[in-house]
């Protein structure tokens, strides 16, 4: 039996991916089956006739043996309305080998090039993961993707390996073209260009080589992605790709790289002031050079302080791409660029989405020509379509409850993208054990925290790698003070810690995973107390994306403020196919949220119903006497309410009410 996607989304078939329109559309649990790797789907997930084909609410479409996979994007909820009770659905237990690919036994099976496949094996990857198996076919086909998969599932390699294959293929084609030109010149010495002309031709060819851009939230994750790219090496030991990390401390290279890793803020600053580094690092130069864009930790980068810079970058690329496609179409159709730019909106959209063939299918013809008389012969490359950029949005969590959430925004902007989900998206992994400890007061909290860390059997054996999460810098410092007073060696990792000490914390964890241990802050050497054990005390700065090797135990000194942060925290352990444990200290203030998440985990279900801010849990508990997830009716929800004007009932009459609308926009 295939695994099932469980996604909270508005009713299928009402409003489409862009929204619900004027009709109210309560969000049932959306269920879709996995698509077979490499399966061809029409753009936008359309079925026969171009209409959206989605399972009806409550309908389970069955796929192959494995699980989630490609699925239809969520439709954002645009109106608040009273929620109807929804049937409880329990996901079937995952396969024992859920981490690994189901059908592909080698990287060549995914369609990756031989050099990249060999480099992956040389880097220590014996076989592809399930996420890599799902992501490779659409990426290699040039499709945009939204990849949402559990932490530690291999997402970085899932996009790096296909991009490396595409970039190397383009490089090989350019080299072959240059070799053919050189051979022709050698055969005709009189027509051979001089050295200066040859150098100019080589420079032009180099300037046309595509660049892949990876955007990440912080420098630590940028360094990690860069290291992953540089670990892919050829038979000569050199990296397959020329990769560069760009930041305020690391200026861009003068030589054109294949892969650029940076943050939205650093790239925005570079595009303002980077003209001194060459044309590539100007807005026009980069927009023309970049062919592939990856947004890692997409749900984070599409919100908050990252949002403006990211949107400006994406808008820059979109405008440049459309202008280049218009120019290419004009050239291929032998008309003026002004004639293309004078087209109506419908035909322009057809060109932007489908290239010259899309424009012709939309009815374009020359003045005086008959409709349908224009066509591009089969086998003739579409010059405009070849200029479309490829986008990949990657995340471990993808909320899609309101139109402001990342999933809803991506569904609106990238309607043709392939949506891919990991088997355990928004779930706790089966190899992860949980302990929930209720604490009241500082003394009880301190005792429970010390017992959680030093009572670990791995601690006594000197092999514990413990990551302790605190809610903010002040709380992390308080945990550090407690550990220091009790002789618990540890490292601190948060924004107020100097960069060198933050790097030392990551290095200590890596060294412990490799069998060694570095000195620790606040408690002397790691040889005291826990022997070779390592403890890192962190804010949520270490919760997203950073691959801390072999963390054995995650301790929540302060419970996460929302379910999304909870998933990212617990995702630091039990990565790949390893096990791990989580100890959560639960204060009275966090009890409602912790209880809801715990119930989902113990029932083996995704925690999407808890994707709301912590304050909404207290409001629900106060209203119903218990937590009621989104899409579910609380006790007595259908009973008549007194008072006709204000409070809860007034809100429900005005827009539909419930907890799934704009009052709980997600984290």
Automatic annotation (TrEMBL):
Organism whose genome encodes this protein: Raphidocelis subcapitata
Every Helicase ATP-binding domain range: 136-314
Basic residues: bias regions: 53-65
Protein name from the UniProt record: DEAD-box ATP-dependent RNA helicase
Keywords: ATP-binding, Helicase, Hydrolase, Nucleotide-binding
Region: Disordered, residue numbers: 15-96, 623-667
GO CC list: cytosol
Domain of life: Eukaryota
Domain called Helicase C-terminal: residue spans: 456-618
Gene3D superfamilies named among the record's database cross-references: P-loop containing nucleotide triphosphate hydrolases (3.40.50.300)
SMART domains hit by this protein: DEXDc, HELICc
Sequence motif Q motif, residues: 105-133
UniProt cross-references to PANTHER family, sorted A to Z: ATP-DEPENDENT RNA HELICASE DBPA (PTHR47959:SF1), ATP-DEPENDENT RNA HELICASE RHLE-RELATED (PTHR47959)
Pfam families, per database record: DEAD, Helicase_C
Bias (Low complexity) ranges: 30-43, 629-640
A GO molecular-function descriptor: hydrolase activity
